[in-house]
């Protein structure tokens, strides 16, 4: 970039990152994903800065870039993948049903009734504000 455009870009991004991060967090619901989305947006903005800096409403232009980046990400198959620290355990109902000599549905219904009875005996949960 030339003619002070890079300084304008840095000044704009420095001022707008907190607002962009809040918008990204509202969209993603996750701080890490929001940071990634903002990083992607400001990188794309750097490449398009000559066009963006002369836009009538640069804030709307950049917000549109961020939202479109989010929508594009949601369309990708990998965005549906959830990573876990360890593999989730398979449901043991069928194993229990085989041991007890009954159906999986019977095990589920008895388990549900048993948990409901325990909940009635326990004091109500107290929610701790975060």
TrEMBL record:
GO terms for biological process: DNA-templated transcription initiation. Keywords: DNA-binding, DNA-directed RNA polymerase, Sigma factor, Transcription, Transcription regulation. The keyword Hydrolase does not apply. One of its GO terms (cellular component) is DNA-directed RNA polymerase complex. GO terms for molecular function: DNA binding; sigma factor activity. Residues 14-77, 89-119 form the RNA polymerase sigma-70 region domain. It holds the Pfam family Sigma70_r4. Gene3D superfamilies: 1.10.1740.10, Winged helix-like DNA-binding domain superfamily/Winged helix DNA-binding domain (1.10.10.10). It comes from the Bacteria. InterPro entries: RNA_pol_sigma-70-like, RNA_pol_sigma70_r2, RNA_pol_sigma70_r4, RNA_pol_sigma_r2, RNA_pol_sigma_r3/r4-like, WH-like_DNA-bd_sf. Belongs to the sigma-70 factor family. ECF subfamily. This is DNA-directed RNA polymerase specialized sigma24 family protein. The lineage of its organism: Bacteria, Bacillati, Actinomycetota, Actinomycetes, Micromonosporales.
């Amino acid at each position: 970039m030339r003619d002070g455009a890079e300084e304008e870009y840095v000044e704009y991004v420095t001022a707008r990152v907190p607002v962009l991060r809040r918008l990204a967090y509202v969209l993603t619901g996750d701080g890490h994903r929001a940071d990634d989305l903002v990083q992607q947006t400001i990188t794309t903005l750097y490449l398009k800065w000559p066009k963006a800096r002369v836009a009538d409403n640069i804030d709307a232009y950049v917000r549109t870039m961020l939202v479109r980046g989010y929508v594009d990400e949601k369309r990708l198959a990998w965005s549906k993948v959830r990573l876990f620290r360890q593999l989730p355990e398979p449901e043991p109902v069928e194993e229990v049903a085989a041991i007890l000599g009954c159906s999986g549905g019977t095990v589920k219904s008895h388990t549900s009734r048993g948990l409901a009875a325990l909940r009635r005996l326990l004091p109500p949960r107290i929610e701790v504000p975060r």
